[in-house]
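Quick one before lunch.
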Amino acid sequence: MICVLKILFLEGKIMNNGSSMVLSLDIGSDRTKLCAGVPVGNDRVEICAAAMVKTKGISKSVVTNSDELTECIEALVKKLEGNKKKLKRFVYVAKNKNIKVNSIYLTIGGEHILTVNSKSALRLSERPVLVSRHDVSRLMDTAKSLQRCVNREIIHLLPQEFMVDGYKRLKDPEGVCGCMLTAKLHTISCEASFMQNLINVVNNAGISVEDVIYSGLAASFSALTKQQKHAGVILLEFGAETVDALFFKEDSLQWTSVIPFGAKDITLEIAENLSVTFMQAEQLKMQYKSMPDDSMYKIIVKKKSADYNTIIPQYLTAVVDKKLFEIMFFIKKELELSGILSKADAGIVISGGMSFMDGFTAKLQEFMGVMVKFGIMRGFVSNLPAAGSNFYAAGIGAVMYAIDKNRNKPVKMSMRRRDIFRQIVGNVKDMYNDYF
Ligand SMILES: Nc1ncnc2c1ncn2[C@@H]1O[C@H](COP(=O)(O)OP(=O)(O)OP(=O)(O)O)[C@@H](O)[C@H]1O
Ligand SMILES: [Mg+2]
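Model of the magnesium ion complex:
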């Protein structure tokens, strides 16, 4: 008996150590981010590490050069594992062992993401019975199997609300009495081959993937508050090639869309209009608002043809504003057509690299006609200044999501039979040594 108790205790210890530190990898089309966090107490998260590198080998969410992408991930892991100065707290949490990135939670995004709202029902009994947790699982499993299709992987099946006979809008139907259980669901799926290619690249870098999370949903964990999600809020995560648009109301995700525009489109527009290289266009984009609005002021640009040219800041502003208008117009149309713009009582929150663009928040607010807020990273503690930057919204959000999921997961036997046998032998030896 003593032996069994000791085994369970040791197993609990192993599980805690194994599940306490969570790492996420957010492979963006422009930058790849690696974040790490640990649970603190019962409901808090501490972000202990965050690093980012320029992405290589991916375009339009498709792996174009797996070797380059693998190298990029390896460089990022080295950056995080080697940067001990900044990671004191991490090293402390890891009991002074070196950080090893063995497994991660992978975010996934891009135009191949599809979402759908649906309903699913389960007949419980002829006579009213209490709805159990098992009934809810059965309903979700049935919905999942009905929605499964070739070359698509369901990454999230999120309940919006449950109904038990006449009782509507239930967040948790467990314990309610009825004959029929119905659920409104929001499904997020991705192209299976795209996901597998990405997982293969991560595996080639010597890292295993614990789970996959849609990047927009991940960002919502760090950029939105519970109050906003209840009142009705639209999150726009502006990346380099896509904008993840999500609408939350009454605490659940109601609508999602991946809009095929991003910060890179503005860079390409500048490069084309000014005949400059992509790198130079990128620099001009970063400073376009900080330049004096004065026609006497000239910007000297080196053209692709190696000639030099002078332009006035107003010309650059006109080029950027034209593209920005196009992007904002497209997003507004999408939000209006789906009928969510008028329902977002808490307005719009923006995150991602493009949200840092000078004057963008104000411009978007004026154009959309609803309140627009620059996303403030929240819901975690950290002594890393970088953790406050919403460049990491998806990466840090993925860590928060994973820790939350692990907390709510029922504790399972995590060791394989052989490991348990080894553990028993080890414990018997320990007991023998203790007593004799
Ligand atoms: N101050 C700024 N002004 C304008 N654009 C900026 C600024 N800072 C960063 N960006 C742009 O943000 C983009 C990178 O943002 P982010 O890291 O969120 O994208 P990503 O995750 O790599 O892309 P995606 O999510 O679309 O795959 C780059 O295109 C970069 O030019
Ligand atoms: Mg991104």
